Amino acid sequence: xxxxxxxxxxxxxxxxxxxxxxxxxxxxxxxxxxxxxxxxxxxxxxxxxxxxxxxxxxxxxxxxxxxxxxxxxxxxxxxxxxxxxxxxxxxxxxxxxxxxxxxxxxxxxxxxxxxxxxxxxxxxxxxxxxxxxxxxxxxxxxxxxxxxxxxxxxxxxxxxxxxxxxxxxxxxxxxxxxxxxxxxxxxxxxxxxxxxxxxxxxxxxxxxxx
Length: 210
Prior knowledge:
By secondary structure, the chain is mostly helical. The protein has eight helices and no strands. Helix 1 packs across helix 5 (about 105-110), helix 4 packs across helix 7 (about 150-175) and helix 7 packs antiparallel against helix 8 (about 180-195).
């Protein structure tokens, strides 16, 4: 697939921002990485500033996330014939894959985006919250959970937060919590999602309010 000059600038700038930091990355370095003549002003034929390149990277990831969430919700019916635990494992694996896909953007977020609160807000409203909403909608769409009186957004925040924490710990500390490998994590996450206890699936019985 052929990429445009604009797409190369965005991709290479995000990689450099993640590796070196936003402030430490020059326009000339971005141009060189994107296959342009460094220092010749090629970036400015597509973007007004380095900040605009960063904003384009964030918005590109937002657009892709929207499509991925739609695909996820469509798969809720595509794979309905498989056991729920298998579908939950697939959901968890998709979450970990999403974290890996966004690793450069996440590094930039933690390192530099406090300088750009409007981009933090765009990431929160365009990527993070929609992903949690997508998990909640996916759970509510499963036939086995239909009609369950559960707070799916809150449950999604717990399950999604576990995926985020597992990936971030592995990324920042160079090994997963308690050295639990990904296969074990995915299996345990799915079991947690199922809510399998002696009384059965989550939502079958709900404890009375205190």
